[in-house]
Amino acid sequence: MPYKSSTIKSKWKKTKWLLEDAYFRRYVPQTLLFSKKNLTSMLNDYNTVFFKPTDGSGGKNIIRIRKTDGGYQKQFKTKKTYYSGIDQLYQELKRFAGNRSYLLQKGIRLAKSNGKPFDIRVMVQKTKKGSWVGTALFTKVGSPGKVATNYNQGGKIGTFRHTMEGAGFNPAFISQMETELKRVGVATGHNFDRHYKGFKELGLDVALDFSGRPWILEVNTRPQVYPLLTLKDKSLYNRVISYGKQYGRYK
C-alpha cells in the first residue's frame, strides 16, 4: 500500500492555520514572513530570532540571529558572522535566501537536559476509525553550539521522561506536561482536518523554555520516525509503525 497521508510543505500555511484558532495562539511563538520591515520589528522586540525556509526540513538552512552590544550576530551551523547594522544583515539574509521564501520566528531559549538544549517531538496518528491519538513523545537533544537540535544536525534521540528529569523537572510536572502535549497534538490534528483532507499523522516540534512553558515551533506532515530506532527500547518505534501500516508507513 502506498503512503497515504496528506503533506503540506509550507510552514507559513501551517502556522497560519494554528494562529486562526485562539486555543493555539499561546503556544505559537511570533512568526512572520521575511521582509526588511518584519526583520526590523522582530529584532526590536526580541533578542533572538530564527530565520528558516518556509519549505525546509531536517533543520537545514536555519540561521539564528542574536542582538549583540555592537549590532547583530548571525549563526549558520557553527559559523558566526557579525554585522553592525540591520541593513547589512538584511542584505546578507536576502542573498542567502535567493528566490526561496523564508520565515522569521521569535527565538525560544530552550530548556537544557544535562547541559544540552532539547526540544520535543509529539507524534499523533489516526486510528482505523479516524480519531486522533498521541502515539509517541520523544526528545531531540542538540549538540551544544549548533543552531538546530534535529537528528540530521547531529542531535541525539532521547526518551521524554529521562530528558525531562535531566532538565530538573519533577515527576508531577513531567506527567502533567506529557498529558498537555498529547492533548495539544490531538487538537492540532483536528485543526488541520478543518483546513485540508487526508491527514493520517503529524509530528509537532515543541520547545520548552526555561520556565517549562511549551511552544509549537512547527508541525511536520511527514515526520521522520526512523531515528527512534537509535533508542534501545524499540517499543515507541513499533507503536508508530503499527498505526502507520494502515496508511502505508512501513519505516
TrEMBL record:
Domain of life: Bacteria
Entries under Pfam families matching the protein: ATPgrasp_YheCD
InterPro entries per UniProt: YheC/D
Protein name listed in UniProt: Glutathione synthase/RimK-type ligase-like ATP-grasp enzyme
